[in-house]
Amino acid sequence: MGIINLQEENSFIRELTERRNVESIPFAGRYRLIDFALSCMVNSGIINVGVMLPNNPRSVLDHLRSGKDWDLARRHEGLFYLPAVEDDDTPCRGDLKNFYDNLDFFEHHNQQYVLLANGSYIYNMDFNELLRFHQNTGADLTIVYHTAADTQEGRSIVLETAENGLVEDMAVRNTVYDGTKVSMGIFLVSRRFFIDMVRDSFEHGGESLMLDTLVRRFKDYNIYAYEHDGYVAHVDSTTAYYKANMDILQPEVWEELFMGSNSIYTKVKDAVPVQYKDTAEVDNSLLANGCVVRGKVENSILFRGVNVGKNATIKNSIIMQKCDIQDGALIENVICDKNVVITKEKWLKGAPNYPLIVKKNVVI
Q: CA-CA-CA-CA torsion for 167, 173, 175, 181, nearest 10 degrees?
């Protein structure tokens, strides 16, 4: 079975998560972040998926609905929602309590393994290869990691491993450097072992699944690490979100994520194709259906239904669904949330490493 944990801790995307959780943030013109973990599970043959809901699940429920778009609307198995359980006597301080309170979900199904994933990572991988690695090593638990290609800010779990993949150390770092092995928030474990591990950790005062069950007690288990050598991005900050979207404009990244044999699925919204008017100029950009372009768009991503007025210019920006960039406006290094209106002749500029964010439904 697959489990997607949406109780994201230590996320620093404040402006984009006031009305939604991290995993339902729009991405790459038409997707949400959760689409990547969910699609990879479905492509790997997992037909029983539980979604550990956040405290405010409306945006997730609206996006996933019955799971039909991922072929998970089934009579048996399919998509399950696991609610965050909280009461006045024992307020929830971490995700471990919610796993503990939902243990009956794991006990009432007969799958042999549990694959747990975080919904805020962007990647495309085949989990069947992870399963074969796990079985061949005889590990109690296998963690998926990637090797950092540059310095990255943000709280991460880093690994040190032997040549055969055996984990020799796990630690939490606020900065990781080139060559560091960084956990992707994905691990595979037998269902029975997972149940016992969660129960034991919670009943001994644990609060966080990763920190209290794995990082602080990794020596109690036989843990191996499996490397994913493809593209990976962790969207845990505004800068990381902006960079990941800009990465999509690189053909090699786009092809790896979306053009391979394993598709990334999302909620279907049919609309007319993009309309490029006579005055439109578009260079190295990604435009979703329903857009109408009369101005200039460069190195940018436009979501569904965006209107770009005559003589308007959009550079190095992310413009979400149904925004209206009116005649003569200039947008550079900006993230516009849904339904934003930039009126005529207004200029907005952010810094390349710190984009300006315009909140949802704002008129400037």
A: 10
Whole-prediction pTM: 0.94
**Mean pLDDT, residues 131-146:** 96
The CATH number of the domain where 350 resides is what? 2.160.10.10
21: domain CATH number is 3.90.550.10
Q: Are 307 and 320 in contact (CB under 8 A)?
A: no
Question: How far apart, in whole angstroms, are the C-alpha atoms of residue 85 and residue 83?
Answer: 6
For residue 265, being part of any structural domain is answered with: no
Task: Give me the pLDDT at residue 17, please.
Answer: 87
List the structure tokens of 275: 């309309």
Domain membership of residue 268 (yes or no) is no
Q: Structural domain tally of the chain?
A: 2
Alpha-carbon span 292 to 123, nearest angstrom: 30
In a domain, 65, yes or no: yes
How far apart CA 307 and CA 242 sit, in angstroms, is: 21
User: C-alpha 30: how far from its chain's center?
Assistant: 14
pLDDT digits (tens, 9 = 90+) for 42-89: 999 999 999 999 888 999 999 999 999 999 999 989 999 999 876 555
Q: Rounded distance, CA 108 to CA 81, Å?
A: 15
Going by C-alpha positions, the residue among 9, 280, 268, 2 that lies closest to residue 117 is 2
Provide the residue range defining the domain that includes 213. 2-258
Verify that 239 and 288 share a domain, yes or no.
Answer: no
The tokens describing 10, both together, are 């230590």
Mean pLDDT over the full length of the chain: 93
